[in-house]
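quick one: tetrahydrodeoxyuridine bound model?
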Amino acid sequence: MPHNRTISASYLEYSEEEELPRDIGELIEAAKKASEGAYAPYSGFSVGAAVRLSSGKIVSGSNVENAAYPSGSCAERTALSYAITNHRNDFPVSIAISARGNSGIPAQVVSPCGNCRQFISEEENRTGGRIRIILACKDKTLVFESISDLLPLQFSKLSFV
Ligand code: THU
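yep, here:
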């Protein structure tokens, strides 16, 4: 007989901006600001990601599109690539994502695509720590404590053996 198993994830949802812890609010502001740097002529959808490093430093990035669509990069990968390249030993501890479309900040959170989830997963494995994922939109903020919540049963170097 097969066993019926369940995969579940829990997260915090804030609906009041004033309730957000200061460091989270600050990271969301940095992500919002980063979205202004987006190069998104094809989708018109500007995304910003801000990464908090263990030293407290914040680095950020935005989506960079390409006429050959798959060659573009999402904001999360731009920001994390920058962090890994320039601050190799200052590990990412959280990442905030904020977007702006043609009609302003969306009512629903923008959640990382599968490719970005895998990228964040690699970074958790490289550093051995969890990366908090903060998804912000107009009236709410969702906080996940690890990529495992968004990408269960992930493929990693541990799967090689
Ligand atoms: N995008 C991101 O940068 N991050 C996400 O989490 C979702 C999607 C970008 C990719 C593309 O440039 C645009 O948003 C529309 O899909």
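The chain has a mean pLDDT of 97.
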